[in-house]
Amino acid sequence: MESPWFLDNLIFFILRPLLATSFVVCFIALWWFLAWKLVLSHVPLVQEIFGLRHKTFIPKPESRGRISKFYKSITSSQNHW
Prior knowledge:
Layout: H1 5-38, H2 44-49, H3 66-79
């Protein structure tokens, strides 16, 4: 007993490409998940891109070095004139 031709065409043109595509997508998703868990989630640049870790902004002190003290002394001496 042979299967009808439309069933063969259905399997060949619809079911096989659908199964092959789903296999490839699942394979890529599995390796992406493994790479994410093992490597990518620990990279600071990737964390910043995906918003996993927010950069903390720490303001710099107003007088943070010798140069800023020098310029501050110049501007304060100019204000006295």
